[in-house]
Give the backbone structure.
Amino acid sequence: MTDAIIHSHPDADAVAAAAAEHLAEAARRASAERGRFRVALSGGNTPRLLYQRLASPELGAAIDWRRWEIFFSDERKVPPDDAHSNYRMASVAWFSRVALPAASVHRIEGELDGAQAAARYEAELGEQPLDLVLLGMGEDGHTASLFPGTPALAERERRVVQAKSPVPPHDRISMTLRALNEARAVVFLVTGTSKSARLAQVLAERARASNPSDLPASQVRPRSNTVHFYVDRAALPEPIEPG
Ligand code: 6PG
Protein backbone atom coordinates (compact mmCIF):
# COMPACT_ATOMS: atom_id res chain seq x y z
CA MET A 1 0.00 0.00 0.00
CA THR A 2 1.61 3.25 -1.02
CA ASP A 3 2.10 6.00 1.52
CA ALA A 4 2.48 8.60 -1.22
CA ILE A 5 -0.14 11.26 -1.77
CA ILE A 6 0.52 12.68 -5.22
CA HIS A 7 -0.43 16.27 -6.06
CA SER A 8 -0.02 16.57 -9.83
CA HIS A 9 0.01 20.01 -11.46
CA PRO A 10 0.49 21.25 -15.03
CA ASP A 11 3.82 23.01 -14.49
CA ALA A 12 6.41 24.11 -11.92
CA ASP A 13 4.62 27.38 -11.15
CA ALA A 14 1.41 25.54 -10.30
CA VAL A 15 3.40 23.10 -8.15
CA ALA A 16 4.96 26.01 -6.26
CA ALA A 17 1.59 27.68 -5.69
CA ALA A 18 -0.01 24.49 -4.38
CA ALA A 19 2.95 23.57 -2.18
CA ALA A 20 3.01 27.08 -0.73
CA GLU A 21 -0.63 26.72 0.29
CA HIS A 22 0.20 23.33 1.82
CA LEU A 23 3.00 24.83 3.92
CA ALA A 24 0.87 27.81 4.98
CA GLU A 25 -1.92 25.47 6.11
CA ALA A 26 0.54 23.19 7.93
CA ALA A 27 1.93 26.26 9.69
CA ARG A 28 -1.53 27.41 10.76
CA ARG A 29 -2.31 23.94 12.14
CA ALA A 30 1.00 23.53 13.98
CA SER A 31 0.77 27.04 15.42
CA ALA A 32 -2.75 26.35 16.69
CA GLU A 33 -1.76 22.98 18.19
CA ARG A 34 1.77 23.72 19.48
CA GLY A 35 2.33 27.45 19.13
CA ARG A 36 5.18 27.02 16.62
CA PHE A 37 5.77 25.62 13.14
CA ARG A 38 9.12 23.85 12.87
CA VAL A 39 9.97 23.28 9.23
CA ALA A 40 13.12 22.10 7.43
CA LEU A 41 13.76 23.45 3.94
CA SER A 42 15.32 21.63 1.02
CA GLY A 43 17.97 23.17 -1.16
CA GLY A 44 18.76 22.96 -4.84
CA ASN A 45 16.83 24.89 -7.49
CA THR A 46 13.33 23.40 -7.43
CA PRO A 47 12.08 25.12 -4.25
CA ARG A 48 13.06 28.63 -5.41
CA LEU A 49 9.63 29.19 -7.00
CA LEU A 50 7.98 27.97 -3.79
CA TYR A 51 10.06 30.32 -1.63
CA GLN A 52 9.23 33.24 -3.92
CA ARG A 53 5.56 32.32 -3.66
CA LEU A 54 5.69 32.25 0.15
CA ALA A 55 7.21 35.75 0.03
CA SER A 56 4.54 37.03 -2.37
CA PRO A 57 2.26 39.83 -1.09
CA GLU A 58 -0.89 37.77 -1.58
CA LEU A 59 0.37 34.83 0.47
CA GLY A 60 3.18 36.22 2.61
CA ALA A 61 1.00 38.94 4.12
CA ALA A 62 -1.44 36.34 5.47
CA ILE A 63 1.21 34.30 7.28
CA ASP A 64 2.27 34.92 10.90
CA TRP A 65 6.03 34.56 10.40
CA ARG A 66 6.62 34.94 14.15
CA ARG A 67 5.40 31.33 14.57
CA TRP A 68 7.89 29.81 12.12
CA GLU A 69 11.18 28.09 13.11
CA ILE A 70 13.08 27.42 9.91
CA PHE A 71 15.77 24.76 9.59
CA PHE A 72 17.54 23.25 6.57
CA SER A 73 17.54 19.56 5.65
CA ASP A 74 21.04 20.03 4.28
CA GLU A 75 23.65 22.57 3.27
CA ARG A 76 26.74 22.70 1.18
CA LYS A 77 29.98 23.28 3.07
CA VAL A 78 30.31 26.85 1.81
CA PRO A 79 29.92 30.30 3.40
CA PRO A 80 26.39 31.76 3.57
CA ASP A 81 27.11 34.27 0.78
CA ASP A 82 28.34 31.59 -1.62
CA ALA A 83 26.34 31.04 -4.82
CA HIS A 84 25.98 27.33 -3.86
CA SER A 85 24.55 28.07 -0.41
CA ASN A 86 21.02 26.76 0.18
CA TYR A 87 20.65 29.39 2.90
CA ARG A 88 21.58 32.14 0.43
CA MET A 89 19.04 30.94 -2.12
CA ALA A 90 16.23 30.95 0.47
CA SER A 91 17.34 34.33 1.84
CA VAL A 92 17.26 36.02 -1.56
CA ALA A 93 14.01 34.37 -2.69
CA TRP A 94 12.13 34.57 0.62
CA PHE A 95 13.58 35.60 3.98
CA SER A 96 14.70 39.04 2.79
CA ARG A 97 11.18 39.81 1.58
CA VAL A 98 9.05 39.00 4.65
CA ALA A 99 8.91 40.02 8.32
CA LEU A 100 10.63 36.84 9.51
CA PRO A 101 12.59 37.31 12.75
CA ALA A 102 16.28 36.61 12.04
CA ALA A 103 16.44 34.35 15.10
CA SER A 104 13.78 32.11 13.53
CA VAL A 105 16.14 31.00 10.76
CA HIS A 106 18.54 28.28 11.90
CA ARG A 107 21.36 28.24 9.38
CA ILE A 108 23.77 25.33 9.00
CA GLU A 109 27.20 26.95 9.41
CA GLY A 110 28.73 25.74 6.17
CA GLU A 111 31.75 27.95 6.66
CA LEU A 112 32.93 25.88 9.65
CA ASP A 113 34.82 22.60 9.84
CA GLY A 114 32.36 19.85 8.78
CA ALA A 115 32.34 17.88 12.01
CA GLN A 116 31.91 21.08 14.04
CA ALA A 117 29.09 22.35 11.81
CA ALA A 118 27.24 19.02 12.02
CA ALA A 119 27.60 18.82 15.81
CA ARG A 120 26.49 22.42 16.33
CA TYR A 121 23.49 21.95 14.06
CA GLU A 122 22.48 18.68 15.70
CA ALA A 123 22.44 20.51 19.05
CA GLU A 124 20.45 23.40 17.58
CA LEU A 125 17.91 21.07 15.96
CA GLY A 126 17.42 19.23 19.26
CA GLU A 127 15.18 16.19 19.72
CA GLN A 128 11.80 17.81 19.16
CA PRO A 129 10.38 16.45 15.88
CA LEU A 130 9.96 18.79 12.95
CA ASP A 131 6.40 19.50 11.89
CA LEU A 132 7.26 19.31 8.21
CA VAL A 133 10.30 18.53 6.10
CA LEU A 134 10.43 19.83 2.55
CA LEU A 135 12.61 17.66 0.28
CA GLY A 136 13.74 17.55 -3.32
CA MET A 137 15.03 14.55 -5.23
CA GLY A 138 18.00 14.21 -7.53
CA GLU A 139 18.04 12.13 -10.71
CA ASP A 140 19.93 9.45 -8.75
CA GLY A 141 17.17 9.30 -6.14
CA HIS A 142 19.14 11.23 -3.49
CA THR A 143 17.35 13.56 -1.12
CA ALA A 144 18.76 16.19 1.23
CA SER A 145 22.46 15.31 0.91
CA LEU A 146 21.85 11.59 1.41
CA PHE A 147 23.24 9.87 -1.67
CA PRO A 148 22.88 6.16 -2.56
CA GLY A 149 25.44 3.88 -0.88
CA THR A 150 26.95 6.55 1.39
CA PRO A 151 27.69 6.40 5.15
CA ALA A 152 25.45 9.43 5.70
CA LEU A 153 22.49 7.48 4.30
CA ALA A 154 23.33 4.48 6.50
CA GLU A 155 23.61 6.59 9.69
CA ARG A 156 20.96 5.56 12.21
CA GLU A 157 22.00 7.31 15.45
CA ARG A 158 23.02 10.88 14.56
CA ARG A 159 20.43 13.40 13.31
CA VAL A 160 22.96 15.60 11.45
CA VAL A 161 26.18 14.38 9.82
CA GLN A 162 28.81 15.32 7.29
CA ALA A 163 28.00 13.96 3.84
CA LYS A 164 29.67 13.57 0.47
CA SER A 165 28.06 14.42 -2.84
CA PRO A 166 29.28 12.93 -6.15
CA VAL A 167 28.53 16.32 -7.72
CA PRO A 168 30.13 19.54 -6.47
CA PRO A 169 30.02 21.01 -3.92
CA HIS A 170 31.17 17.62 -2.69
CA ASP A 171 31.28 18.40 1.03
CA ARG A 172 27.86 18.69 2.63
CA ILE A 173 26.11 18.72 6.00
CA SER A 174 22.84 16.77 6.05
CA MET A 175 20.01 15.67 8.26
CA THR A 176 19.92 11.88 8.38
CA LEU A 177 17.02 9.51 7.76
CA ARG A 178 16.54 9.44 11.54
CA ALA A 179 15.84 13.17 11.63
CA LEU A 180 13.76 13.12 8.45
CA ASN A 181 11.66 10.15 9.57
CA GLU A 182 10.99 11.64 13.02
CA ALA A 183 9.13 14.48 11.27
CA ARG A 184 5.37 14.69 11.46
CA ALA A 185 5.10 15.18 7.70
CA VAL A 186 7.24 15.16 4.57
CA VAL A 187 6.60 17.03 1.32
CA PHE A 188 8.64 16.23 -1.79
CA LEU A 189 8.83 18.73 -4.65
CA VAL A 190 9.81 17.04 -7.91
CA THR A 191 9.52 18.78 -11.29
CA GLY A 192 10.97 18.42 -14.78
CA THR A 193 11.41 15.59 -17.27
CA SER A 194 14.91 14.78 -16.00
CA LYS A 195 13.37 13.38 -12.78
CA SER A 196 10.54 11.37 -14.37
CA ALA A 197 12.18 7.94 -14.69
CA ARG A 198 13.53 8.02 -11.13
CA LEU A 199 10.29 9.40 -9.71
CA ALA A 200 8.29 6.60 -11.32
CA GLN A 201 10.74 4.09 -9.77
CA VAL A 202 10.51 5.67 -6.31
CA LEU A 203 6.70 5.80 -6.38
CA ALA A 204 6.50 2.19 -7.55
CA GLU A 205 8.90 1.15 -4.75
CA ARG A 206 6.90 3.05 -2.16
CA ALA A 207 3.80 1.19 -3.31
CA ARG A 208 5.56 -2.08 -2.40
CA ALA A 209 5.04 -2.49 1.34
CA SER A 210 8.19 -4.55 1.77
CA ASN A 211 11.87 -4.23 0.87
CA PRO A 212 12.30 -0.62 -0.19
CA SER A 213 15.30 -0.16 -2.45
CA ASP A 214 18.45 1.59 -1.36
CA LEU A 215 17.25 4.78 -3.03
CA PRO A 216 17.26 7.51 -0.38
CA ALA A 217 13.97 8.99 -1.59
CA SER A 218 12.35 5.56 -1.12
CA GLN A 219 13.56 5.33 2.47
CA VAL A 220 12.00 8.56 3.76
CA ARG A 221 9.04 7.28 5.80
CA PRO A 222 7.91 9.75 8.48
CA ARG A 223 5.99 8.76 11.58
CA SER A 224 2.74 9.89 9.96
CA ASN A 225 3.49 7.34 7.26
CA THR A 226 2.28 9.87 4.73
CA VAL A 227 4.49 11.55 2.18
CA HIS A 228 3.16 14.23 -0.15
CA PHE A 229 4.65 14.45 -3.63
CA TYR A 230 4.06 17.76 -5.41
CA VAL A 231 4.92 17.05 -9.03
CA ASP A 232 4.39 18.54 -12.47
CA ARG A 233 3.32 16.68 -15.61
CA ALA A 234 6.91 16.74 -16.88
CA ALA A 235 8.06 14.69 -13.87
CA LEU A 236 5.00 12.45 -13.74
CA PRO A 237 3.28 12.25 -17.13
CA GLU A 238 0.97 9.40 -16.19
CA PRO A 239 -0.87 9.01 -12.86
CA ILE A 240 0.44 6.07 -10.85
CA GLU A 241 -2.20 3.40 -10.28
CA PRO A 242 -2.89 3.13 -6.51
CA GLY A 243 -0.74 0.33 -5.05
C1 6PG B 1 20.71 20.19 -2.29
C2 6PG B 1 19.35 19.60 -2.05
C3 6PG B 1 19.17 18.37 -2.88
C4 6PG B 1 18.18 18.77 -3.96
C5 6PG B 1 18.22 17.79 -5.10
C6 6PG B 1 17.35 18.31 -6.26
O1 6PG B 1 21.34 20.72 -1.37
O2 6PG B 1 21.10 20.17 -3.49
O3 6PG B 1 18.98 19.50 -0.79
O4 6PG B 1 18.70 17.24 -2.21
O5 6PG B 1 16.88 18.83 -3.39
O6 6PG B 1 19.56 17.69 -5.53
O7 6PG B 1 17.95 19.51 -6.70
P1 6PG B 1 17.21 20.44 -7.80
O8 6PG B 1 15.98 20.97 -7.13
O9 6PG B 1 18.22 21.52 -8.09
O10 6PG B 1 16.89 19.55 -8.97
